[in-house]
Design goal:
31 strands; 41% helix; single chain; alpha+beta; globular
Length: 867
């Protein structure tokens, strides 16, 4: 395996030169691209060699101050262009390189996608375009001229504002772009090709008109309205909440099929995975429409939290990503349901980030070293990073937090900052009112440097005479790779008491910053203690260890005024049921109590609050269940889930059919209206179909050809696990309808790959050879191979065949797309939690993968996985 030297935070030093301006001339030819770069450089002091990064570049010329350098004056090897004796004063460096984007399958730098040329430069892709320091703390003003044949590339886009257009000989043309705001190379973007433009405008709070342009392939124009409206809502929200206004004359979004990420926030030229732009109610689900709105907002919000203020080095990645995730979460919460959004975010955190924190690839929000930075675009950096921002917001309150944000923006606009800069700005801004902070900022910063999910152990004692509940709390964090010793963290813990009539007294916020803490809650005297509503709104990202009776969970589910706590109580009961079934026995008392509680909720449903009810009824994720089972037995958990769903369908058949009847009238409402009814319909179909209800299966089959993608996909999910004729009919119907739409057909590939059939492995192999499968598109790879790993009976076959197959596929993908392969390799990260036989065959698959010639990205992950 290729081993890369680690990059360490402790070794950071500022670059030895200032690069104030850069001018690029990009000449697009049919088989190659010429890139001429002109950089104005000045030494910061002292004599240092000039070293620039470059990957797969053919260097044609180097000049300083207009003088061509002989080859003896520079070295070009091993990914570096080095000039040992650069001038000791300000000078101009000019280079000319030839690159081949048409055979670049890495999807980094400049590459071809669907007949167009596009870029992806974060994190280290710009070095594939020309020689450059390619580090985020080198900020420059950019001017970019793009030249190409008008017939093949009528659209030429880059960052900033278009300042000149030229008509050239031989049917060629050129456009020059100027970005007046300093930015690092990872935010450079270029698109050249034949695209259709959808244009709109937005008037800022100060009265400026901003031109908004979406660029898509021909035929996709009808599916852009939702993305455009999402962009305008994002711009208005950022002005209203953060007083941050867009700063250029135009804003461009381009949809690209071949893209490793969801989207990229390049200054004024966002490049998106096409699945996160193209959508309407017929082609996208409610969840996808909300995600598109959220991602559009996320990339727009980066204009300030990421672009105007960027990160000093890649160890600070969460500075921009954690903050911007928090901002996009708040945006969605404000526009839709804050309670539902918070629950969705917590469920995602528990099922992905908590698993990452508990495995061999665990790392802090701010890592201390890395080999391949692409491996750190993780839920820890993004979602856990957002939880850190949320805790600051909880600790300080809205007004003080927003003062801190204003301080951060004014202090660091136009610079590359650190997480320490951010926390200090928040603290300084909050402290302007002269009040105590209420927590130690230095202790809070431990969150950035310490990996792992804290465990919060809670014991309690009820004083019946005084009506007081005394809590004793203890926090611990288990060792993680490279961090055996852990320190106490700052934990904001929101708590309240709940009785038969609802909340008793006021909610309290305990700020715990040591290993132990004690809190007394005042209730009402009496023999029976009230229920404890703990970690309300999930006020800190921790796992809780507390003994709670069945009665207490039911009381919280029925009477707590915090939606998260109600949902958490239902989840806790469902976990008890599923884990007991997976372990070979049933807890009849808990099962019947939970069914009775759900029956009450379903019986009370009259069409209002559908989203709240749907999320309350949802079952816990598999990753959550695996974290509580030792050893983990995935097929047993899967069987328990399927059996319990069928049981719910049998015992709740009458209210579920009533729910379907009530919901039907809202099916056709345009998003965001009607999504509660559609979510409940999908849940009812799933439960009833699993119980053998022929009417529900028939309804589901009919929905696959209907006008709502939400209902069509819900129907497919309900039928897909079942060995019934309706499943094959539904999947075939969906394929026939959408086979010409790759963005939609990926859902079919995923459903087929994850269907639990006896010949599942052979079917997945056939999908990889399917004429509609695109092996160069990460979306297609994730659909088939990601769907396969979700196919529990097949992927987790005890003979190891699924594991071996996946190892071979990862190695093959790695030969052309290291970023996608390294992320897929993490599917093996839980092998230590399985039983001995399954652990043995998974270890063999990991060794099989390790023996393949791997990229530095995938090698780093596999080395962490190896036993």
């Amino acid at each position: 395996m290729a081993a890369a030297a680690p990059v360490r935070l402790a070794d950071y030093t500022a670059w030895a030169f200032q690069l104030s301006t850069i001018q690029l001339n990009v000449d697009v030819q049919d088989t190659f691209v010429l890139v001429k770069a002109r950089m104005e450089l000045e030494p910061r002091g002292g004599h240092q060699p000039l070293a620039l990064r470059g990957v797969e570049l053919e260097l044609l010329n180097v000049a300083i101050d207009g003088r061509d350098l002989p080859t003896s004056d520079y070295r070009c090897s091993d990914g570096w262009l080095t000039i040992d004796q650069p001038p000791e004063h300000a000078f101009v460096l000019e280079t000319c390189c030839r690159i081949d984007p048409y055979n670049n399958s890495s999807l980094e730098g400049l590459y071809a996608s669907g007949g167009m040329l596009s870029t992806q430069c974060e994190a280290e892709g710009f070095r594939r375009i020309t020689f450059h320091p390619d580090r985020p703390d080198v900020l420059s003003r950019w001017t970019v001229r793009i030249e190409a044949a008008r017939s093949s590339c009528p659209v030429l886009l880059s960052n900033g504002n278009a300042i000149a257009e030229e008509e050239l000989a031989d049917g060629r043309h050129a456009v020059t772009w100027e970005d007046p705001f300093p930015k690092p190379s990872y935010l450079f973007a270029l698109v050249a090709g034949e695209l259709r433009e959808i244009r709109d405008q937005f008037t800022t709070a100060s009265g400026r008109t901003v031109t908004l342009r979406l660029h898509v392939e021909e035929g996709d124009e009808p599916y852009t309205a939702h993305a455009m409206e999402s962009l305008k809502r994002s711009m208005a929200w950022d002005e209203q909440i953060y007083q941050l206004e867009y700063d250029l004359d135009e804003y461009n979004i381009v949809a690209v099929r071949h893209f490793n990420m969801g989207a990229m926030e390049n200054k004024s030229l966002n490049i998106f995975n096409s699945k996160l732009v193209l959508a309407d109610a017929e082609t996208a689900t409610d969840g996808e429409l909300e995600r598109i709105e959220s991602v559009i907002a996320h990339e727009y919000f980066h204009n300030w939290s990421g672009n105007r203020i960027t990160c000093r080095d890649w160890f600070q990645l969460s500075l921009k990503e954690g903050l911007t995730v928090f901002r996009d979460q708040s945006f969605t919460a404000d526009l839709h349901s804050a309670a539902v959004k918070r629950i969705e975010d917590v469920a995602m955190l528990r099922n992905t980030q908590f698993r990452e924190d508990a495995g061999p690839t665990a790392h802090p929000v701010k890592p201390s070293e890395y080999q391949a930075i692409d491996n750190f675009y993780t839920t820890t950096i993004y979602e856990k990073g957002a939880e850190l921002i949320r805790m600051l917001h909880t600790l300080l309150g809205q007004e003080r937090f927003m003062r801190g944000m204003a301080t951060y923006v004014s202090r660091f606009d136009g610079t590359a900052a650190t997480t320490e800069d951010f926390v200090q700005s928040i603290v300084d801004g909050a402290a302007e009112d002269g009040k105590e902070l209420g927590f130690d900022p230095e202790r809070f910063k431990r969150w950035y440097h310490q990996a792992g999910t804290p465990e919060l152990k809670v014991q309690r004692r009820w004083d019946a005479a005084k009506g007081q509940l005394v809590l004793e709390l203890q926090q611990t964090t288990l060792p993680t790779p490279g961090q055996a010793e852990k320190q106490p963290l700052v934990l904001p813990i929101a708590v309240a008491l709940v009785g038969d009539q609802g909340r008793i007294g006021e909610e309290q916020l305990l700020v715990m910053d040591g290993e132990r803490a004690k809190l007394t809650l005042q209730g009402e005297p009496g023999e029976e203690a009230p229920a404890l509503s703990l970690l309300r709104r999930f006020s800190a990202p921790v796992n809780v260890q507390i003994e709670q009776s069945l009665q207490e969970s039911l009381q919280l589910l029925a009477h707590d005024d915090d939606p998260f706590s109600r949902w958490d109580a239902a989840q806790r009961l469902a976990r008890q049921v599923l884990l007991a079934r997976a372990d070979g026995h049933r807890d009849e008392t808990v099962e019947q109590a939970l069914i009775h509680a759900l029956l009450q909720r379903l019986s009370d449903y009259n069409g209002d609050g559908g989203q709240d009810l749907a999320i309350l009824l949802a079952l816990p994720g598999t990753a959550e269940l695996e974290a509580l089972q030792n050893p983990v037995d995935p097929p047993a958990l899967y069987a328990a889930q399927r059996d319990w769903i069928a049981e719910l369908g049998r015992q709740l058949a009458e209210p579920l059919h009533h729910l379907l009847k009530v919901s039907r009238g809202d099916w056709s409402q345009a998003w965001p209206a009607g999504q509660g009814a559609r979510s409940l319909t999908g849940l009812a179909w799933s439960w009833l179909a699993a119980a053998g209800d022929v009417e529900a299966r028939t309804q589901a089959l009919e929905a696959v050809s209907g006008p709502s993608m939400t209902l069509a996909r819900a129907a497919l999910r309900a039928l897909q696990p079942l060995d019934v004729a309706e499943r094959d009919q539904a999947l075939d119907c969906f394929y026939q309808r959408w086979q010409e739409k790759p963005v939609i057909l990926d859902a079919w590939f995923a459903l087929e790959a994850s269907a639990p059939r006896p010949d599942g492995l052979q079917r997945v192999q056939a999908l990889l050879e399917h004429p509609r499968f695109d092996p160069l598109a990460p979306n297609s790879l994730r659909a088939v191979l990601g769907g396969f790993t979700a196919n529990v009976p097949v992927f987790h076959a005890i003979d190891g065949s699924g594991y071996r197959f996946m190892a071979d596929q990862i190695a093959e993908v790695d030969t052309r797309n290291a970023i996608t392969a390294s992320r897929m390799a993490k599917v093996f990260s839980r092998f230590r939690s399985y039983g001995s036989e399954r652990q043995r065959v998974m270890c063999e698959a990991i060794e099989r993968l390790a023996d393949a010639p791997l990229s530095a990205n995938t090698s780093e992950v596999v080395q962490l996985l190896k036993p």
